[in-house]
Amino acid sequence: xxxxxxxxxxxxxxxxxxxxxxxxxxxxxxxxxxxxxxxxxxxxxxxxxxxxxxxxxxxxxxxxxxxxxxxxxxxxxxxxxxxxxxxxxxxxxxxxxxxxxxxxxxxxxxxxxxxxxxxxxxxxxxxxxxxxxxxxxxxxxxxxxxxxxxxxxxxxxxxxxxxxxxxxxxxxxxxxxxxxxxxxxxxxxxxxxxxxxxxxxxxxxxxxxxxxxxxxxxxxxxxxxxxxxxxxxxxxxxxxxxxxxxxxxxxxxxxxxxxxxxxxxxxxxxxxxxxxxxxxxxxxxxxxxxxxxxxxxxxxxxxxxxxxxxxxxxxxxxxxxxxxxxxx
Length: 328
Prior knowledge:
Largest sheet: 6 strands, mixed
Mean pLDDT: 93
Number of helices: 10
């Protein structure tokens, strides 16, 4: 099985069945960056955000990702303040950040005394539970950079748990190559028990400082310290991105051979009858494929499917703007 199809099927299973031996997967998302210092340096295949104590409050707050620069700013709750006092930088940047926060529904904007003012209409909730990262390697015979990726996850500790998911038979030699903290799952989506726990993950130190692996070569590993505060901010960024993005970030092919496939509760996976598997329409489909027959893509609403099967609410939030602001 190719990694793309494996990843979609596993996300569907995690969303429906939860994270094996850990808990309910409140949010499941694909392809998220977890690095603190090296932007885009570590992209985790799938991240599950388990519900924290105020998870329900987050579902009603906004359907989109609240920008990290908005959450990092000291925006008062309930009382208005000038945007230039709340956000650092030139006035144009301050207004732009306030606009972004209002677009998600998290901030209220108004115009008072000739100045644009902003507030939080409600407190940001304590909604983030444990973060579980999953690296998908259907074929362990083609591991790529897997060992370095796992060392990064274990050393940094932005995640609470890190797991390798595979379709391969897992040997003792495989387990010995992975850090002890890393869990291992074997997935067989045709079986009655689609996700088997080969080795349970051990908790990572997500609350304390960590070390980010920047580069690793034989005999040398370059790392950079990460403080507990930096890690906490990155965890919130990862969780927020996961909430806004989800895992249904694909298109169904515009081809007569395209069909909707089902896995667990998901019933709109992009299946190709010609290739007899799930396909990534963005990279695999089109006139260059010998089985391509131009047609409309199968009808589906991926946001509606997500809303049916998860606590996520598509209509939560939305732009909040006081009535007098549009006059200026």
